[in-house]
């Protein structure tokens, strides 16, 4: 199943818009502590599918999934789409692209 992706510029526009998606970061806690996008919610991919079932209860809620470079978040987004979530988008390039193109104060690692 193809996973919809958006650029960091489009993500920034959506996140600052009138109805922002829920931003889900699927990296690990140590990565999140090093760098994260303001407003992101940490749901580590290593704890799926349990944490997704517990925390992502509204299958119609728009979700923007991100990780370091976009690989883990693409896997998480694909999982969600396969399991009946309706509005799931992957952040192309992940937080690394975000720190290069949007917010240079976010550390790169």
Protein described:
The chain is α/β, with parallel strands linked by helices and about 110 residues long. The chain is built from 5 helices and 5 strands. It has a 5-stranded parallel sheet. Helix 4 links the parallel strand 4 and strand 5. It is globular. The model has no long low-confidence stretch (mean pLDDT about 95).
Essential attributes:
single chain; 109 residues; alpha/beta; Oxidized Rhodanese, domain 1; 5-stranded parallel sheet; 5 helices; 5 strands; globular
Helices, strands, pairings?
Blueprint: E1 5-6, H1 8-15, E2 22-25, H2 29-34, E3 41-42, H3 50-55, E4 63-66, H4 71-82, E5 88-91, H5 94-101
Parallel strand pairs: 1-5, 2-3, 2-4, 4-5
In short:
The protein has 109 residues and is of the alpha/beta class. It has helices spanning 8-15, 29-34, 50-55, 71-82, 94-101; strands spanning 5-6, 22-25, 41-42, 63-66, 88-91.
